[in-house]
Amino acid sequence: MSVAIRIIPCLDVKDGRVVKGVNFQGLKDAGDPVELAARYDAQGADEITFLDVSASHEGRSTMLDVVSRTAEQVFVPLTVGGGVRSVGDVDQLLRAGADKVGINTAAITRPELLAEVAQRFGNQVVVLSVDARRCPPGVTTASGYEVTTHGGRTSTGIDAVDWAVRGAQLGAGEILLNSMDADGVTGGFDTEMIDAVREQVRVPLIASGGAGRPEDFAIAAGHGADAVLAASVFHYGTMTIAEAKEALRNAGHPVR
Question: Catalytic residues (predicted)?
């Protein structure tokens, strides 16, 4: 039996409010995170991801009060990321109500953190968040995809495919693959990037960045995504979770 494809609304939070922009620029207010989380839970979301998009850039930890209030309203798995720098940070987030923790910038700085968190809490808690963008293949990276940090503000020169492979080896239970080029553009997922990572990585892969139509979710799943994450199309009512699941079902993908 095939595993159901998961639909994951993403709450990008800054200063306690959900925001959304294009390529992480021009952020606009999209609502209250607690209210949106409760709405998506009621609408049939399989999971919800909460990302404090300015925590790493501002050098602070994720806002635990918002996480706690969000967790109280959500009865599906909740992934939280942003500003996670230590095993202690992960412990605090889990105690606040998170089920999984997304790690990005701190893992680039010290990859061993992934292994430490996995050993303490289990691989299922660790989501390696990979913010990748296209670059000249063979020049910057062999694959043509480069890892960025701090919401896409900082280049690393690290090959995104190689980093996803290493992250899984270190203990990441899932890879959240976000196309920085497609983020907020609503022109479809970067399926070539999904293909490149899927070919090398066996842990569950979450596709992110580019959802614009219900069919985009089915296309991403067809290229090997185990889950599909989106934000603006849900926040602004472009489509519903039910419509995204119907498109997956029509394409032959199992959904919950």
Answer: 12, 131
| Catalytic, out of 12, 89, 183, 226 | 12
Q: State the catalytic residue, choosing from 32, 46, 89, 131.
A: 131
- Distance (Å) of CA 123 to CA 94, 115, 166, 167, 174: 14, 9, 14, 11, 8
Strands 126-134 and 100-103 turn out to be parallel
25 pLDDT more than 70: no
Q: Is 12 a catalytic residue?
A: yes
> Based on C-alpha coordinates, what's the Rg of the chain?
16
Residue type, 64: L
226 carries an active-site annotation? no
- What integer is the mean pLDDT of 130-152? 90
User: Other C-beta atoms within 10 Å of 249: how many?
Assistant: 13
Strand partners, 92: none
Q: What b/e sequence results for 96-123 when a residue is b if at least 16 CB atoms lie within 10 Å of its CB, and e otherwise?
A: bbbbbbbbbbbbbeebebbbbbbeebeb
Model confidence pLDDT, tens digit, residues 229-246: 999 899 889 999 999 999
For domain 4-249, the CATH superfamily is Aldolase class I (3.20.20.70)
Q: Give the residues across from 48 on adjacent strands.
A: 78
Dihedral pair phi/psi, residue 136, rounded to 5°: -60, 115
Per-residue pLDDT tens over the stretch 165-194: 999 999 999 999 999 988 877 789 999 999
